[in-house]
Amino acid sequence: MKNVILVISALLVLTIGINSCKEDIELIGEFEETAVVYGLLDQSEDIHMIKITRAFIGPGDATEIAQIPDSSYFQSVAGTVTEFIDDVPGRIFTLTDTLVENKDPNGVFYAPQQKLYYFATLPSEPLLGNAEYELNIVINNGEFNVSARTVMVNGITNNISAQTQPFKFITNNAAQDYKSSPVTVNNLALANAHQVNVTLRVEFTEWVGTDSSITSFDWKIGESVVLQGENSKTYSANGQLFYELMRDNCTNNPAIDKRTFNSISTIVTGGAEDFVNYMLVNEPSSSLAQSKPTFTNLTATNGHRVIGIFSARETTTTFKPFIDPSLIPYIRVIDKITTNKLCTGPITGPYLFCSDHPADISEFWSCN
Asked: Which of 20, 86, 148, 280 allows an S-S link to 310, with CB 3.0 to 4.6 Å?
């Protein structure tokens, strides 16, 4: 019996060896063009960018091929975005290609220049919050088409819009009694938002004599998925972290003789359902099982594949200056106790902050 097994094994080895001599393994088989499309409409913007590239395959090192721009571009691309209200077509926007220089050079693909497609709207005639928008792309003179449709996100509001509500990051200047200041985002269900992000853009000025330079930083205070039927979300801006971020964003220039506070802009971004689903599917996995589903709302014709997303978001920005002379008695974006701690507290006190607010003119921490 052992001899029979040995003979069979020898024949199998011989057969495999003969076949491997006769046939080469084709690592590059027939390749079907695959489109890669990313587009995110925002009615707060006037220029609407859409990225349209192709997947590639070829002999040699893939990282070297990725450095060649033409490897990622189709021979020809023609596209439109059509506006629909109650399923009735309206305005049609034609995509135009452009080259931009904003691509991170530290990535695998060619940089910093990249080709994008865009269409523009007038500030007086923006995209409509109650409309749907349909993307149609013709690839390589009709070899295949790519299409998708998205609803808009529209109507998000927040409680910071009232000019009478300043941020309060401390309750007692004598003690280290820091507090969190809330930001509540409303109308989420009505606005069709399925995820919301809140960022504070904080700005101050550094002075060397009469010369000044503006410094700003973005402070992300929260992001979360909106549950079905949920109409509001509240996020907290931590008081101690506010002072630490102010300190950490001061430039290291020994010639600076004072710093003054300028403003806080509250930036709220809400994403449509398809966009949120795409982000959730593509976020990094912490599981050992790395098999993940794919998601796209794009479709392709003639048996071709397409990956990516065409969806929408809404961005609302509420700007609140430290001094607003149009509002008496000079409503401020941070209250007086918070300003005092900025100028005299242990975290930012050594950094030469002073107040130029008219209501603080009699204080020892005033700039005057």
From this structure: 148
pLDDT the model gives residue 161:
65
Contact 204, 215 (CB under 8 A): yes
Segments of the chain assigned to CATH 2.60.40: 34-152
Contacts of 122 (CB under 8 A, 6+ apart): 46
- State the average pLDDT for the chain: 84
pTM here is 0.81
The pLDDT value recorded for residue 241 is: 97
Tokens of 279: 């982000």
Residue 354 CB neighbours (<10 A)? 22
Q: How many CB atoms lie within 10 A of CB 223?
A: 14
Residue 355 is classified by DSSP as B
Q: Which fold has domain 34-152?
A: Immunoglobulin-like (2.60.40)
Spatial CA neighbour of 324 closest among 333, 315, 312, 316: 333
Cα-Cα-Cα-Cα dihedral of 80, 85, 89, 91, to 10°? Answer: -50
Q: What is the mean pLDDT of residues 202-208?
A: 98
* DSSP run (H or E) holding 3: helix 2-22
Beta-sheet strand order (sheet of 305-321): 96-100, 114-120, 47-54, 34-42, 305-321, 258-271, 195-208, 211-225
Residue 137, φ and ψ in degrees, nearest 5: -125, 130
For the record, the structure tokens of 351 come out as 């950094």
147-176 residue pLDDT tens: 999 999 999 999 886 556 789 999 876 667
pLDDT digits (tens, 9 = 90+) for 262-306: 999 999 999 999 999 998 888 766 555 556 668 899 999 999 999
Rounded distance, CA 203 to CA 216, Å?
4
Q: How far is CA 332 from CA 117, 206, 260, in A?
A: 42, 19, 13
Residue 243, classified by CB atoms within 10 Å of its CB into exposed (0-12), middle (13-18) or buried (19+), is buried
Segment 41-64 shows an average pLDDT of: 77
Look at strands 47-54 and 34-42 and give their pairing: antiparallel
Tell me, what's the pLDDT at 195? 95
